[in-house]
């Protein structure tokens, strides 16, 4: 199953399920839906969050990925890290 129909350009039902899940979880609010707010994804090294970035773009949301991930962030002593 494709994520986007090549002929019509419409997103697949699978991505509509993801869209609704993100709305239910509060990831997508009015700001994100209107394009005013940009989603920012990150993970440990940046590769897993890049999948979310791709999905967000396919859903039409403004999104960015912190490519270096927490690993890169935490190795720079100028960046704050709070341990709780």
UniProtKB/TrEMBL annotation:
It comes from the Bacteria. This is Rhodanese-like domain-containing protein. InterPro entries: Rhodanese-like_dom, Rhodanese-like_dom_sf. Residues 39-82 form the Rhodanese domain.
């Amino acid at each position: 199953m494709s994520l986007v129909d090549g002929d019509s350009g419409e997103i697949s039902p699978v991505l509509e399920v993801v869209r609704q899940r993100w709305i239910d979880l509060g990831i997508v609010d009015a700001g994100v839906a209107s394009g005013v707010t940009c989603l920012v994804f990150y993970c440990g090294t940046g590769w897993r969050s890049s999948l979310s970035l791709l999905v967000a773009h396919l859903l039409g949301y403004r999104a960015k990925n912190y490519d270096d991930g927490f690993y890169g962030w935490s190795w720079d002593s100028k960046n704050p890290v709070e341990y709780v």
